[in-house]
Amino acid sequence: IVTANPGVVFYGGVVSQGGAALKKALVAAGYTGYVVGGDGIAADPSWITTAGQSAAGNTLGTVAAPDPSSLTSADAVKFKSDYTTFTQGKQDAALLPYSAAAYAAATIEIEAIKAIIKSGQAPTRAAVRDYIASNSFSTIIGNIKFNANGDNAGDKVFSIYSVSSDGS
């Protein structure tokens, strides 16, 4: 890899699968470009433990969900406050990007089930799927809707985190 001198090396795994060890070996061999990976490296403090502080620079982790600090609507602020209150003192209590996305998904499903029951239909899997597929939803992470293929046609959310030598 060092001989090829790429500007970026993409690592498609998590820290425990060797990503941090790869970064450490690359830096030791003289590589100065970026290492980019998914959410498995974005917020894992063991990256620094394994790669070492000198290997932390030029490391970016991507997450297909919003950074919770970017959520500022009244509903999002209430969600964050409620989440913090509920998880206070519990293990793994951090509000992570997927927490907000999971909350948005759950609220969409609940809304669909309620609407189907209100219309007099049974809330079957197919009915819920069809309702969600044919509607648009305003959530704490943005507008969610789907195209005819079932792909996201609403707001696109993608966050990039830089790994720093202090593990944050």
SSE blueprint:
Blueprint: E1 8-11, H1 19-28, E2 34-37, H2 39-42, H3 46-51, E3 59-63, H4 74-87, H5 97-118, H6 125-133, E4 137-139, E5 142-144, E6 159-162
Parallel strand pairs: 1-2, 2-3
Antiparallel strand pairs: 3-6, 4-5
Main attributes of the structure:
single chain, 168 residues, alpha/beta, four-stranded mixed sheet, 39% helix, elongated
Shape field: elongated
Radius of gyration: 20 Å
Oligomer: single chain
Q: Based on DSSP secondary structure assignment, what is the total number of beta strands?
A: 6
Class per helix and strand makeup: alpha/beta
Low-confidence stretches: none
Mean pLDDT: 88
Q: Please write the string of helix (H) and strand (E) elements.
A: EHEHHEHHHEEE
Q: Main sheet, how many strands, which sense, barrel?
A: 4 strands, mixed
| Number of helical segments with 4 or more residues | 6
* Spatial strand order of the main sheet: 1-2-3-6
In whole angstroms, how far apart are the ends? Answer: 27 Å
Percent strand equals: 5-15%
The helix content, as a percent range, equals: 25-40%
Provide a descriptive summary of the structure in words.
The chain contains six helices and six strands. Helices cover 39% and strands 14% of the residues. The protein has helices at 19-28, 39-42, 46-51, 74-87, 97-118, 125-133; strands spanning 8-11, 34-37, 59-63, 137-139, 142-144, 159-162. The chain is α/β, with parallel strands linked by helices and 168 residues long.
